[in-house]
Amino acid sequence: MINAGIVGLGWWGKNLVEAVQGKSEHIRFTRGACRDPRPVAGFAERHKLALASSLQELLADDRVEAVVLATPHSLHAEQIVAVAQAARPVLCEKPLALTRADAARAIDA
Fold this sequence. Notes:
Layout: E1 2-7, H1 11-20, E2 27-33, H2 41-46, E3 50-52, H3 55-59, E4 66-69, H4 76-85, E5 90-92, H5 100-108
Helix pairs in contact: 4-5
């Protein structure tokens, strides 16, 4: 079982959590991150997610083995690099990046 963190708990991030939480034998979300955790506190409690207010806080949790990004496209490249530097696998919702240069930087990381 992979203990994953998810960054971005808007509409799509919530859908991703609900698609796997308690249903998959391979992955479960144990931690979520969003800028303001207060609006998603009830959702997080229902799905047994510890909340963080930043990607860096989520990555500081050694129990997070992989990261799923459900964030705005403009943030993907920087977030992929940060997750790679933390030596964790990352799944990024499309698009990978908004420019070819950012995509190459993310892939290189």
